[in-house]
Automatic annotation (TrEMBL):
Domain Ketoreductase as annotated: residue spans: 4-196
Keywords associated with the record: NADP, Oxidoreductase
Protein name: Unannotated protein
Lineage: unclassified sequences, metagenomes, ecological metagenomes
Sequence similarity: Belongs to the short-chain dehydrogenases/reductases (SDR) family.
InterPro entries: KR_dom, NAD(P)-bd_dom_sf, SDR_fam
GO molecular function: oxidoreductase activity
């Protein structure tokens, strides 16, 4: 059988990079995508140093053309897709009266619309993998704020609720064909995204990116008979 492959968005840092490292260690050939080319290339170089096969494609998840370009590049390089990790995301905090239209659109496009487009563009590859192995996996990074609405992060919160709902819908629509979907719902993870909060919550009290990658490692080892619709990652003592 051809080597299994994974496509990971938002793979240049934080959670996405930890998942890419884990999937490389599990023998997957990787396509990694993120917005800023230099940061992505540095991450890809680190992955290649581990001995992993890596295709890096810089792309803005707000752009439909860029998303198609990522999938086309992955298809041309590997010809198959076993695991899709829809992880790129952005959060802009503001009171509702202060939200700019630009920041609303950006969060809706990157956090949610891009996920729909990635399913649409890859579903034939996922179907082929599921037909061959009885299973293909899509992991969508939501958030704990995709389970409980949060003030000041209201738009982010709403986009992450959409990710949970869409993941449920994809399981209804595609899991009978072997394409399983899981939403990841973490509380604070120690990544660049939470630098704004590190005055209140020390980094060493946050969930680690490797904790999240460990959850995804569990998913790739499960039998085709098992679906995990979502995983909530909480911090000890935290009120939800
Ligand atoms: N950290 C947390 O506490 C936490 C909790 C719950 C959920 N999450 C979610 O976890 C995911 C990963 O975040 P993280 O914490 O690992 O943060 P991070 O280290 O800042 O990573 C975010 C990734 O997304 C990419 N990205 C952002 N906007 C993009 C765009 N327009 N086009 C393409 N790529 C884009 C970034 O690339 P560039 O840097 O080049 O833009 C980067 O690779 C996000 O969906 C986030 O909402 C995080």
């Amino acid at each position: 059988m051809a080597k299994k492959t994974a496509l990971i968005t938002g793979a240049s840092s934080g959670i996405g990079l930890a998942i890419a490292n884990m999937l490389g260690s599990e023998g997957y050939s990787l396509t990694v995508a993120a917005r800023r080319p230099e940061k992505l290339e540095a991450a890809a170089a680190g992955l290649r140093e581990q001995g992993y096969e890596v295709l890096a494609v810089a792309a803005d998840m707000q752009s439909e053309d860029d998303i198609k370009r990522v999938v086309d590049a992955h298809r041309a390089e590997y010809g198959r897709l076993d695991v899709l990790i829809n992880n790129a995301g952005v959060g802009v905090g503001a009171p509702v009266g202060d939200y700019t239209t630009k920041s609303i659109d950006m969060q809706m496009d990157v956090n949610f619309r891009a996920i729909v487009l990635f399913y649409r563009e890859t579903v034939d590859l996922l179907r082929a993998a599921a037909a061959e192995n009885k299973t293909a996996l899509v992991v969508n990074t939501s958030s704990i704020s995709g389970k409980f609405g949060q003030g000041w992060l209201s738009v982010y919160s709403a986009t992450k609720h959409a990710v949970v709902g869409f993941t449920q819908a994809m399981n209804k629509e595609l899991s009978g064909e072997g394409i399983k979907s899981t939403a990841l719902c973490p509380a604070f993870v120690d990544t660049p995204m939470t630098d704004f909060a590190k005055g209140q919550v020390p980094a060493d009290e946050m969930i680690t990116p490797d904790d999240i990658a460990a959850g995804v490692r569990m998913l790739i080892h499960q039998s085709p008979a098992c679906i995990v619709p979502e995983i909530i990652f909480q911090r000890p003592g935290e009120d939800l």
